[in-house]
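Two proteins were folded this term; both appear here.
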Amino acid sequence: MRKNYLSLAAIAGVGSAIGIMCYYLNNYVGGCIFICMSLALFMLAKRIKGNILNFLGVFSLVWFFTIGLSCFMLHSSQTIWNIQTWLCLVMAYIMFCLGYAIKPSKNRDSHNKKFITKKNFVAFLATIFTLSLGGFIVESVIRGGIPLFSSDMASYADFGVTGIHYFTVSSCLFLPASIIYLKFFHKEMRKIDYLIIIIANIIMLAIPIAIVSRQLLIATVIISSIVFLTLFPKYTVATIIIVTAAMSAGWIFITTQRNQTDEYLQSALAIYGDEFTDDDKAILTNTRLMQVYMYLACNYDNLNENIGNIDEYTFGKRTFFPVIALTGLKYATPSLGEMPNLSRFIPVFNTYPIIMAPYADFGIVGVAVYMLLIGMICGYLDMDIDRLRKRPITILIRAIFMYAIIFSFFSNWFANPTTVFYVLLLYILCRFFFSSKVLTISNSAKGENVS
């Protein structure tokens, strides 16, 4: 099995070498090679793992597909990448594969199992609901309003209150947890239970809309979809279609509520299109489409601006920022939160791929070690999917990590305090309500054996 994973790394290395050479000759050809390679690696990973929802396949797809899109250089400010940037990008994938191939010994379920009851799981859901809605209400009172009903273009950015906002955005955990609840306890549920869970989910889904957060809405939909596909793998195609439609509709609606005009975005994101013909301009300077392209592809251009140009490394401040933020060290020791600004290919475009933080902290060595560790974590979570389906909290944590991998081209969610907060919150609630290292669903709830 390990040889299969290493073969993916070898294919990626050879394919990338060809793609990079073509990129310098013709960037469109290079882009097409990387896109084709992403699809091929994804299908190979699916064949090896036997399921579509594995970390190796997902990372292969999103990493090289978005690199391929970026190679097209559709934005006028994009430039040819230096060879060091390419080295970091390809090495990141290879090290991820190496880490993924390092398999720890499988954990054996403890003989001292404590099964999760419906009563405990309802209490678990109620706590998430109360914390999230409570955080939203407190922030609304402190800020004196809700961004959805504000005409201020920056209201969504100014809404969060330090510390409290972590609880508000935990709303994205409620829907996926509800899916687990419905899956395992539907035989014990009454009509009133269904009604309550539907109303509660409507309220939780209203929070990202009320605070005009596209990222939170997308996180809710994707994490829920991952949980659903883990529990119901037969519905893959239908789920992908529904998720794509839901995210597109949500993106469009929330974007319109941010009060950002096309003129503002054209100026802020430097979208001009002067280099295109009239026909091309009609397509490529459509502001909203170009904005989406930039979110998908231009994060690597920000990375390229910094590779080889960082004068002072931050030695862990960025990679371990969640620890600094969540422990309050950035307030107790302000110097820990002070970091030099990173370069951007456009001043207001501030997103970077997953390897930016380790590179800014430790250079190319940091990228290698960091991606090796991420690969090891993902490989561990992919070890035994059948056993995983019996452990609901692990399903949620895996879905959060999968979400982080899906958006690895856009941001480093592993170095984001919110991601760490989600995991810590789930762990604390798990210990409080279930108080067991082995969190399995009882036979009576499932109607099947747990072994």
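Next, the second protein.
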Amino acid sequence: MGQRQLQSGDGSCVERVARRIEAEEFVDVARAAYERAGELAAREYGHRAAVLGALRLASRRSRRPTLAADEVAAPFDVAPETVAAAEETIASRLAPPADEEVIRSCRRRLIVARELLTAVEHDRLHALQLPDSYLADEAPWLLGRALGSVADAGEGTDADDCDPADGVAESDGGDSADDSRDDERVGDAIDAEQLRDHVERLEADLELARLGSTLYRALHEDADRDGACEHD
């Protein structure tokens, strides 16, 4: 028998259960997990346990703390071990998330990219402490672009002889007009639109790492389908 698709009643059940345990933020992922892997768990452990297992899995693959099995099970008179077993059954039918170290690396690179984008958008790239910092470790490609921009901003300076630290030293109260002109050249040198695209790719990478490929595709397929319906 083919896998039963999540019906409107099941979707409403996921939402009702999530509201009762104050876990509404996990509804979309839990619904996708239940739709694609909840039938077997429901047959083995019951519908409520399967829904709770899907919600717990969704929390586990988010940036929020994992829902405690005993806390989510108590309002529904379900054994915590049953919820945990249902979650494990659902997880076994989905692609796993990336390793924690990969997720942490994706998150750090995204933070760095966002910080650089904010600096570029506000013409404050010089204010970042670029060399010998966490920026160098987490985003070497972006760092190279940033350092190149700082070097290009110095008039009459040979890039080969430029000390990158010179471009990021703290202000000593000098000519603010010169600083403003330098920042304008820095902002032009790093294309903000390309950097925004890079941030979006890193956001997608992090989401994929956290969710795993099955849930990532499911969420984006559902979003594309909903968007198409809105334009019909």
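Residues 8-96 form one domain. The chain has two domains: 8-96, 100-207. These notes refer to the second protein only.
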